[in-house]
Each structure stands twice: as structure tokens, then as C-alpha cells.
């Protein structure tokens, strides 16, 4: 049974994923890239995944058969388990919870060999719609407090399958980093009576030097205190605490700036491994006035010092102004 | 000029290290392992580093010549600069500070090809004494608030030179992770009137299942809410908020458990890359009753999911109880 455990000092919840537990020996040798020809996300292999929970497919096609263009399935080796209950209990002095939650995979395309950076805008829009549909469906579950939507691209960024996919984890707790953003933006709001993210957008639009791209509805910037080279945030210009509130016109603009930003990284950094994560308010609706949803993209580049990994302290060897200039200079095709 | 910059949302300070700035292009291709024969930390190359600030060497030998067994020098490509002043200023809505601080390298041995895990206890003690001497010297500087002592072992953990060395960064700010530990342990103290780390030591000693090793003065455990497989903490049994208060007998015990723990990882995980960081109170003396210094060791293993890197949210595929059992089973030579 997977378990959620809370650090007694800094109050950070961690998933101890027993269902996908690896034996210590599994970590001894770097895993060799497997050139397996079988992919559970390809057309014709729909029966090898758990049954789909959402698919965009022709009206005359049957579930779990080919023909779809975006498909969402439960993760076969989920880190959390929807059949559990979010029951809390003590373990001596420690605090834990059953590993309740939903872990899903968004298969972004039937094409095994492409990438969000290279798809056409229409297909990226469809992926964003899939995020939105699953977000909205799971947000209705009152046991769920937070919905994490994220992507690992490339083996060095933690992707175990090459076929383009994103993931969604719905949890009965709010992740620490998000809680910190909520707390920090509330502090700012209490002092300034303004949303800190709205202020950042205004400041960056005026200064220009950290802007990578903008369109009518979104802006992509390198944050002022970037932790990593080419760390990029995409923010909606309209104040909204939740990704769930995105409207049709914004889905189009978001897909466009997302694809372009990933394309810039793909081109400028030679298809780097990267992670992105959608930061949005808890499903309880917290932060209406002061929080602002956004997407954070972190390429995992070599030559980046290592101790930040465990320490939470960062040395960034590339000023974000220089990174922005570099990414901006990429020609969009 | 290096700069300290503060994230306006979560108030995390980051070093933007312009002095060691890399051009965007440096990140494009994984750096090939350089089989350079020249090492600035070897005997005879003392003149290629900045002059030593501390060395354990025979009384009749001259500074910056061979003969030393531990040597500390300023980092030639320091992330911070001691000639600056910790002057604070605004950049529009943002907050920054000159990149003032000390960045030093502790060369742990003249032997290019060894490793803390394989040295004899006496040599590891000498390394700990070097930490202590530099800690104490820099703690006297009233502009310094925090002294970070850490080690990156292996290229995948961010080490750029193979020769065994640790690093020290003294800063005019307290890193966010440490501030969180201070805040969290104060909350616990306010509620329980006890140190949370002392309680953890008591609980783990009683339960045994997460203990890797203990001696008279120290205990090595896998934390209850471990973020990573084989993440290990070493804590002093005597309550003390600062590493600076360590006494001679404890230096011996600490060196012993540190070497043994690293040896266990070396043996069990086949010389994994790892990072360790000494967590100690700010030099201002905060946390006397409620904070407890300790060392956190994080091996960087493959097959560990990636999005934690940027999101602060962790899925650990190996229960700490299993990791402890595995590390415990290694025979110490």
C-alpha cells in the first residue's frame, strides 16, 4: 500500500510508493536505454493499458481501440491508489496517510516519435483540453485537494517511456512548494493589495529583458531569481488562481506559447531533457484574489552544480537575462 | 559581479553566479569526461590555486608547498566574492544583494584517487577538523549569517574535479531550506517544549527499523519521510544547534560514522554520485533550544523520477525501512 508521509520538521508530504517499489539493487547500475519495440501507447496496444478514462476519438470508434488523437489512462504503476481512503494516522511521533489519489497518463499523440515542441498548434491545444477535462472531472471529488499536471521529457528527466505523454496526480494534500507559493503570495497581497504574479507580469513587460515571448493572453519569461539555466515560466495575463478557469480563446494562446517555448528549448539546447509542472490553486479554491496559475518549465542541463538537488539552495551559472536573449533569438517555424 | 536575488513569491535567495557564467551554448552537449592529467589539488601544483587559508602540514614546511594532509583554499571560480559588500538594493519590484560571501574548497587528502568512504578514520577526522576551523573562523565575521559545508561526489552530483574535496560557502543570508527547518522546529518546540530532532533520535532508537548505524555520540538513520532512496541523516545525540560546538571526542565519533555510512553506500550502491550538506544553525546563534545540527546525505541514483527536481514534490520508490536494512547489511571493513 502506498503511503503519504509527513516530514516532522519542515512538514513536507512525500509519497512512499511501495506499489512501484524498487529493490535496492535496481539502483546499482545506470539503466541502459532499452530499445524495446513494444510501446503500450501505440495504436493497437490499447488493451495493454488500463481502460481509458478519456479519449478524443471519432464518434464511430470504440473505446480502447485505435483512432484516438489524445488518450488518458490510469497509470499502470500508479504512485497512489484511488481504491484507498485518505485516512490519517500516527506512526509513533510521525504522521502518515494512506496513499489515496489518482495517477493518470495523458498520451499526447498516437505518433511515437514526435514531441510537444514539434506538434502542430492544433494537437497541442487538444492536449491542453485533455488536461482541462481531467482537471475538471477530478476537482469534483471532494477528497481531492490538489491536482498536479506535469511532464517528464527524456530519460534524464525521469521519463521511462519515449512516447509523448504527460502525467496527472490528484492528491488529498497540497504539495509544499505550492503551499509556499500560496503563503508567499498572500503575504504580498496583504502588504500591497495586489497579486504578486500580476505585478511580475507588469514589471517584466516593462523591462523586456527577461521576456521570451508573449501573445494576447500569455507571457513566457525567465524569472528574476531563476534557479536553473533557461528555467521558464508561462503566465496567463488575465488574473486567475486556477487553471480550471481557462477559456477556449486562452487554450489556443496557451498551446501556442507552450509549443513555441518548448520549440525554442528544443532548438537552442538540442532537445534537452526537461520537466514542466502546472502550478494552480488547490481545488478548494484558495487564493482567488492573490494566487495566479502558471506553468514552470525546467530544462535539466548538464554542468549544473549538484548539491541543490537535496539542499534547496541554488547557484545558477546563467543569468536569466542571457537565457531569455538566447531563447528569444530562436526563429519559430 | 555575482548577485544574490530573491524570489518575490516564495522568498528564496538564489546566487546568480556571473563570474563563473556559462554561455548558453555550454549547455548544449553533455560534457565529456575529461581525462586531464593535470590536477590543481595534487602535490606540486599548490601555486595553481589561490593561496591556502588553512593547511594541516608539518611545522617545517612552507605554505603552498607539498607536505600537507588537508588543505583549504579559496575557490578559484567562486560563486560569491569576499571583496564585495552585502549591500541590498531593489531592481524595480525585485530584491537583490551584491554577491558577497566566501567560497572555499577543502582538499581532503593529497591522494588524487581515494574517497572519504575509503580513507582511514584518522584522515576523515582531520577533514572534520578542517571544516570546524574554517567554520569557526568565518563565523566571527559579523557580515556572515550562514556557513554551508557540502560535498558533491561524482560528476553526476556536480563535482567538476575528481580529487576528493568538499566546499564551504559563507553567506549574508540564511538558505530557505534551513530557515524552514528553523521555523518548523520552533513550531514543534512551541507545542511540545522539546527539540523535534531529539524526539526523532529517541523514536528511531526505539523502533530500530530505520537505523543504519549508531555509536556513543551519533546516529545514522533513513528519515521517516525520505525524499530519495538511501537518503541518510547523521545526527549528534547531544542536543546542539551548531556544528561549531562539536568537541574532540565527538569529532572522532562523527568521522567514524560518516566514513562508515559513505562506505556502506559505496559498497551497496557501487560508488554512487552523492551530495551531502551540513545543516547547522545560522552563525547568529538562532535556535539554541529547538534546532539540532545534522548532516544530510543524498545519493543520486538513476531511475529516480525527475519532476521533483523543480517542483519540490517527491515520490520515493524505496521505503526508508528497506534502504536502512540494505545499508545496515554492509559489512564495515
TrEMBL record, chains A, B:
Cofactor: Zn(2+)
Gene3D superfamilies, per the entry: HIT-like
SUPFAM superfamilies for this protein: HIT-like (SSF54197)
Keyword Transferase on entry: yes
GO biological process: galactose metabolic process
NCBIfam families noted in UniProt: galT_1
UniProt protein name: Galactose-1-phosphate uridylyltransferase
Species: Pseudothermotoga thermarum DSM 5069
Amino acid at each position: 500500500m502506498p503511503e503519504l508521509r509527513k516530514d516532522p520538521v519542515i512538514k513536507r508530504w512525500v509519497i512512499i510508493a511501495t506499489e512501484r517499489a524498487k529493490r535496492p539493487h535496481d539502483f546499482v547500475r545506470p539503466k541502459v536505454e532499452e530499445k524495446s519495440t513494444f510501446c503500450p501507447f501505440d495504436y493497437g496496444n490499447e488493451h495493454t493499458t488500463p481502460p481509458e478514462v478519456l479519449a478524443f476519438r471519432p464518434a464511430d470508434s470504440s473505446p480502447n481501440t485505435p483512432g484516438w488523437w489524445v488518450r488518458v489512462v490510469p497509470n499502470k504503476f500508479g504512485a497512489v491508489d484511488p481504491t484507498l481512503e485518505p485516512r490519517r494516522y500516527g506512526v509513533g511521533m510521525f504522521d502518515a496517510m494512506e496513499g489515496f489519489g489518482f495517477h493518470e497518463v495523458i498520451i499526447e499523440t498516437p505518433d511515437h516519435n514526435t514531441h510537444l515542441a514539434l506538434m502542430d498548434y492544433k494537437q497541442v491545444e487538444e492536449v491542453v483540453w485533455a488536461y482541462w477535462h481531467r482537471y475538471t472531472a477530478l476537482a469534483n471529488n471532494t477528497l481531492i485537494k490538489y491536482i498536479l499536471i506535469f511532464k517528464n521529457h527524456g530519460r534524464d528527466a525521469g521519463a521511462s517511456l519515449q512516447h509523448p505523454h504527460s502525467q496527472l496526480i490528484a492528491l488529498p494534500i497540497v504539495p509544499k512548494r505550492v503551499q509556499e507559493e500560496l503563503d508567499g503570495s498572500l503575504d504580498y497581497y496583504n502588504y500591497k493589495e495586489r497579486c504578486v504574479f500580476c505585478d511580475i507580469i507588469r514589471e517584466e513587460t516593462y523591462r523586456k529583458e527577461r521576456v521570451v515571448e508573449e501573445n494576447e493572453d500569455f507571457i513566457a519569461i525567465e524569472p528574476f531569481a531563476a534557479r536553473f539555466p533557461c528555467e521558464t515560466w508561462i503566465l496567463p495575463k488575465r488574473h486567475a488562481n486556477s487553471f480550471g478557469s481557462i477559456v477556449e480563446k486562452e487554450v489556443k494562446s496557451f498551446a501556442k506559447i507552450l509549443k513555441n517555448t518548448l520549440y525554442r528549448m528544443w532548438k537552442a539546447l538540442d532537445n534537452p531533457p526537461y520537466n514542466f509542472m502546472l502550478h494552480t490553486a488547490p481545488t478548494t479554491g484558495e487564493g482567488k484574489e492573490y494566487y495566479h496559475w502558471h506553468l514552470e518549465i525546467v530544462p535539466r542541463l548538464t554542468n549544473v552544480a549538484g548539491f541543490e538537488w537535496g539542499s534547496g539552495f541554488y547557484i545558477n551559472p546563467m543569468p536569466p537575462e542571457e537565457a531569455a536573449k538566447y531563447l528569444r533569438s530562436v526563429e519559430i517555424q
